[in-house]
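SECTION: protein entry
WANTED: fold as tokens:
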Amino acid sequence: MKIFYLLPLALCLFSCQSNSDIDIDPENLLIGNWIAPKYENETTIYQRASKLQDNAPGVSFQKNAIFTQRTSGWCGTPPLTFYDETGAWETQESLILITDLNFPGNYNLRIISIDDEQLIVKRELSEQEKDHRELMLLFNGISSLSNSVSCTDPTDWNYTPYGAKACGGPQGYIAYSNQIDTSLFFQKIEAYNLAEKQYNIKWSITSTCDIPQEPKSIACQNGYPILKY
């Protein structure tokens, strides 16, 4: 019978030993390492740890405002290779602002709850993400007008450059039918180009300086225009 009593006692002592190894800042519970993310609806639940795991996702908030995210990037196919992305972090009340991150870029987290053991956060759009969403809405307006007519005769179609790369020049080319309201179409492109220029300046966007190849012709395929190079 003594064995059965000793086993849970040993497990309890081991657990207490592990928790006592974690340095917790009572002035700022966010500081530390958070692992084992569990996703529930729109929230992510992390568990506090003494360090990040070698081959598993996690995040770390350090006192010197250094943020570390251990990630496998976009890769979701085993075996996963994890690496660290390093940026900066600061808080504005319950909002965590994460910046200077190569992947997935700047983003915000809203703290739902936090204690000595657990952190629950919810993704919240940053100002840059909100601006980018508005930019994409403008582009969707261009794309919708372009796709409003089925492509059956390529001679009835043309193409035009669109967008504004940070380094200069267009992002690419888009096809349009002569049957649409071309005046409205070019107004939408002009508005998008201006908005992208402003976005690039506001958020210090960089880009490659290569010039997109201009199409040589247009072909119709399954009702859609295909640019030929």
In short: DSSP finds three helices and twelve strands in the chain.
